[in-house]
Amino acid sequence: MSTLQDIASKAGCSTATVSRVLNRSGPVSEGMVRRVRKAASDLGYRRTERPAPMIRRRSAIGVLIPSITNPVFAASLLGIQNRMRVSGIGVLIAQSDYDPAREAEAIEYLLSEKPTGLILTVCNPLKSELSLPFAMPPTVLLNNLPTPRFPAAVTTDNRLAGQEITEYLIEHGHRRILFVSGHFDASDRAKLRYDGHCEAMAAAGLPVLDALQIPFVTGHDELDLAEPLKRQRPTAIIASNDLLALGVIGAVRREGLSVPGDMSVVGFDGIAIGRLIDPPLTTVEMPDTSMGATAASLLLDIAENAATPRHLMIGYKLHAGGTVRRLG
């Protein structure tokens, strides 16, 4: 078999020139190109094609969140991405818009990318897991309580948080408290907060008002509270998250009422914008960034070290802003 050296000798040039001609990898005169190609043809040279190098696919995990625009989940994503970056692992993101049907589609997409693991915030884990395939990579629930199928979870105590924020309002003299939330079938976190609220009201011997459930992702700027304010006559409103609490404050003001002069309002999450309004929002501050980082570390421990899946609970803090008035 002819070699580059044989062609170089016959063409009267260097092997480097032969290589440049045959690989079209550098400047060579037209005359030399013809000489090298003729020499290669005369010698019966056949170029051996090297197989293309295999591209090593970067490891990645899949993350499902209800909404990319909610600062709560953006903070959790930040914690997840920062932790995975240290380990050289990519992050694939999908959102469900608090819709169980879209949730199933989003998880199907993540699984199609063959992730090394999943971090999921779902509407209701006991219902959501019924639509998932039998074979799943290591999975950690974030913000959802663990289930027999998915025992690995990172949460905070939403029920107790709902109880404590209600007790805070009761201590400030409020007896009729309206709970405004997204639909409970779209968020078990909101349902747990409402359950805690109901327990605190019952323990104090106070009436429990029916929760007002609205869509999570649309219409906060157009929220109309005229009818429930007239019918239920609350002195305070608990919103199931801070974004909704801001919408409640806007709706209360459109009714000609002031916060907290005429109506007290509280929320959950502790997002930054709540501290920027006047007066600052009273809220239960959740550890969203640290929860994301903790979920990422737990997933890596399970996937890489075969650690036992476990439930980790992180604390919250009640932040007293200026949107609650003391009555009496």
From TrEMBL:
Domain HTH lacI-type: 2-56
Keywords: DNA-binding, Transcription, Transcription regulation
Alphabetized InterPro entries for the sequence: HTH_LacI, LacI/GalR-like_sensor, Lambda_DNA-bd_dom_sf, Peripla_BP_I
Name listed for the protein in its UniProt record: Substrate-binding domain-containing protein
GO molecular function, one term: DNA-binding transcription factor activity
Organism of origin: Rhizobium daejeonense
Domain of life, source organism: Bacteria
Pfam family, one: LacI
SMART domains to which the protein is assigned, alphabetical: HTH_LACI
SUPFAM superfamilies, per database record: lambda repressor-like DNA-binding domains, Periplasmic binding protein-like I
